[in-house]
Amino acid sequence: MMFPAVWALYLGLTNYRVTGTAAREPEFVGTDNFTRALEDPLFTSSLWITLIFMAFSGVVGQMGLGFTLAWLFRRWRGWTRRTIEVLVIMSWIIPGSVVAFLWRAFLDGEGGTLNALIPGDVTTEWLLRQPLLAIIVFNIWRGTAFAMLLFDAALNTLPPSHLETAKVSGASTWQTLRDIVFPAVRGHMLTTALLVSMWTFNLFTPFLLTGGGPNYQTEVLAIYVYRVGFGQGDFGFGSAVSAVMLVINLIIALVYFRVLRDRRKKA
Question: How does this chain sit within the bilayer (predicted)?
Fold first, then answer.
């Protein structure tokens, strides 16, 4: 695992390309690729799109909906619960290419299912009119199952007596969540947030829906690296951007670990 990472860092310091003189004899350019990336407005745009995509589809969407579903279904037992768990797992393990194909059919402007469900003669091209919102909703549907399974396991660690005491005391649902549930599962929530954030930050699947378009509006960093590295053949520059993504991932992980460590100390 270390070799390809170190090799990518090395390529990021060169002008290596797929074709031409730089493919045969790449030259060492130092930090020029990193400077070029920071000066590229498309890189800055891709970074902001990635952060928005991660925040709304991962942290807010998947975690919020995943916890809500886990909380609503926590008391279900028997065949109903098993059926829900099977459906949840199936939605998670379906290959990303299949899910993307289904969502393209769902959001299609002419014969799409979403337009057919809306009253009236609607022919909205959702992937063109609302491309960023489309991939956010798509990723929420794709990853909510994972968050739900993690939160379901966390809620199962709560002693039933604590919830029964809150119910007898007349506490509302929000009071029970605020004073009992959230403090007890905060460590699980931080771990889930870390996994979901890093998973979403590096996601390439939106390419299957929009290809990064229209007009780079859905070009997350993973698609940006693919475009400059494989589309333009500039492996050196693409590797430099990959190294930047690695650093951002490390920063995200360190922030979560710091918060988690502080919570454990207080506990």
Answer: Multi-pass membrane protein
Query: In sequence order, what DSSP letters do the residues of 107-132 get, joined into one string?
Result: H-TTT-HHHHHSSS-----HHHHSHH
CATH code given to domain 30-266: 1.10.3720.10
What is the residue extent of each domain of the chain? 30-266
Q: pLDDT for 75-107, tens place per residue?
A: 777 787 788 778 877 877 888 888 889 999 999
Q: What is the rounded CA–CA span in Å between residue 132 and residue 212? A: 10
At residue 51's C-alpha, the angle toward residues 48 and 53, to 5°, is: 105
Tell me if 237 sits within 8 A of 37, measured CB to CB. Answer: yes
pTM: 0.89
Chain centroid to Cα 67, Å, comes to: 16
Torsion sign, CA atoms 109, 199, 222, 18: negative
Which of 254, 253, 196 lies closest to 67, judged by CA?
196
